[in-house]
Amino acid sequence: MKKSITLKELSKILGVSISTISKALNDSPEISHDTKTKVKELAALHKYQPNVLARNLKSGTTKTIAVVIPSVQNFFFAQVLYGIEQEIAKTDYNLVVSLTNESLEKESNNLNHFSNGIVDGFIVTASEETQIKKEYTHFTSALDNKKAIVMFDRVVKDINCDKVLVDDKEAVYKATSHLIKSGRKKIALVSTISNLTVGKSRIAGYKQALNENGIEFLESYVVSSSEEGIKKETDLFLSNNQTDAIIALDIQSSLSGLKSVKEKGLEIPKDVAIIGYSSERTASHLTPELSTISQNGIEIGRKATKLLIDRLKFPEKPFENIVVASKIQNRQSS
């Protein structure tokens, strides 16, 4: 492969200093229009490529941001990533994406690797295993290494950084209250994320709505399992309990709830109303169409990116917590 021409070689051909070549390529007002034109034409002719590594070493920045998320198959994370990409496109930063698959080890390795002079900062949501084991040293190490971090959705309370939060408790509180106002009294909660902070916040919203409306909270009406086991647990619950509504806290629980209710021969929403979490596209193609708690993933991604860029510009400013509101999309299932 032919080696790219250097600034020194360009300066030798044109008979000007290396500094003049560099300033011309960067549109410095110190350089005349004619000289800029000559330098750029010669650079294009010889397919000049700037030495990004050398430039970054000189400036002390990589102009790269890492997004560390569990998966891109999850619609919410995909939407957040889309919002991040939209905002990054307005800047001169590059973006790398790394997946943890809910593994603490992968998450830790990713942060430790990228902190080694590869990125300037991170946009991250904690993996399930990280939250269960409460192991956060990889975050503190990155911060100690002068890397900026913005956490979103699954944030760690003990880590001092900027955060973009979803109003999980308020969203499920509103959804549960809506079902109660429509006459539902025996409301079950179905979840595969009870171990996560977001799951706990959503359960707290459910409990609050029941309490404010004088409805007793029953532990037996909380159906919690893994993604693989939630359908079986939902079937078992419906066989042993009477319910007139279901709040599903995640996509898998929503789909399992719909399927289990229909398999029992119950009519939705006449016999059992359901509100869950899902993408709008999926929700509108289900039968019946699923009422959902809609998280604004794109806006979360945008705000997280703005926070990080701002943090990189002003590293000493106070940390911010931004809350992005969710909304209930009423469809046929409620």
TrEMBL record:
GO terms for molecular function: DNA-binding transcription factor activity; transcription cis-regulatory region binding. This is LacI family transcriptional regulator. It comes from Mesoflavibacter zeaxanthinifaciens subsp. sabulilitoris. Keywords: DNA-binding, Transcription, Transcription regulation. SMART domains: HTH_LACI (SM00354). It comes from the Bacteria. Gene3D superfamilies: 3.40.50.2300, lambda repressor-like DNA-binding domains. It holds the Pfam family Peripla_BP_3. Residues 5-59 form the HTH lacI-type domain.
